[in-house]
Amino acid sequence: MATHSSILAWRILWTERPGGSQSIGSQRVSKIPRTRNLTSVSEFFLMGLSDDAELQPLLCVLFLSMYMVTVLGNLLIILAITSDPHLYTPMYFFLSNLSLVDIGFISTTIPKMIVDIQSHNRVIYCEGCLTQMSIFILFACMDCMLITVMAYDRFVAICHPLHYAVIMNPRLCCSLVLVSFCVSLLDSQVHNAIVLQVTCFKDVEISSFFCDPSQLLNLACSDTFTNNIVSYTIGAMTGFLSISGIIFSYYKILVSILRVPSSGGMYKAFATCGSHLAVVCLFYGTSLGVYLSSAISQSPKKDAAASVVYTVVTPMLNPFIYSLRNKDIKRALWRFLISTNSS
């Protein structure tokens, strides 16, 4: 594989200026200094997690294994829920949607990364980069919204158990998922529109293994203060509404549980939302950790490594959290595996 210095020499641009580039085969070798502004960029270069050639096979095997475990685990959750009529409840309906979103979330970044390692080619077309960024934000926001919806579901189940079936009817459940998708789609398209307004780039090297929207804005050579304000405002509003909904739901749940006279009743109430609470802590804990690490550390490589936590580790652990702590899921998985083997 090419060394880091040779990789930088083969940065691929789409800039037609006198003496700006020369054609070699199907690629263009840039002669433009890194400080000059670049316009009409058609391709970006993903720097990845490491430039060490010896680490590439290990990274490929590691991420391929994590990807397969994530897809298989979430797929088993979906199949177990859809194959067991006893799990046709709002909680498991939202859980199956969360598993589906997690599969899409990790599939947005990891397959591309594995192909790049195998092909020794980290180039991504501008259209592909924008598409990956939009889908990534869509699934990330959808994850966030569904976790909030599941918190509301636990709030109704514990605080209003007698009216649970009436309140959480199929129409409301489908509407909540649809609203989550629409809000996520709007969020992704706003970020996409912000990046499309950038007409000039300082460089084509993205210091990550995927098209991170913040990294793309950092490459802009024009003033992106307004774009950053809009981007962070939209993100903050989405995050604030989601976190506020979760905090409100669990505040009401805690107040309701403390009113239960018996310790057995309190334990049962806590057990019904234990898995979801663990997912909330994992999702927002890793996201907050990545944000703080990127704010403190100015190393792009460390930021890229930290982003692995919420883009790969969180979707991979969600099925284990729900399957290990939920007896209904365990029984459904066991029945599904037995019926599959017998057939």
From TrEMBL:
It is found in: Cell membrane. One of its GO terms (cellular component) is plasma membrane. It comes from the Eukaryota. Belongs to the G-protein coupled receptor 1 family. The chain crosses the membrane at residues 55-79, 91-110, 130-152, 229-248, 269-292, 304-324. One of its GO terms (molecular function) is G protein-coupled receptor activity. It comes from Muntiacus muntjak. It is a multi-pass membrane protein. Keywords: Cell membrane, G-protein coupled receptor, Membrane, Olfaction, Receptor, Sensory transduction, Transducer, Transmembrane, Transmembrane helix. The keyword Iron-sulfur does not apply. Its main location: membrane. The lineage of its organism: Eukaryota, Metazoa, Chordata, Craniata, Vertebrata. Putative odorant or sperm cell receptor. Residues 73-322 form the G-protein coupled receptors family 1 profile domain. This is Olfactory receptor. InterPro entries: GPCR_Rhodpsn, GPCR_Rhodpsn_7TM, Olfact_rcpt.
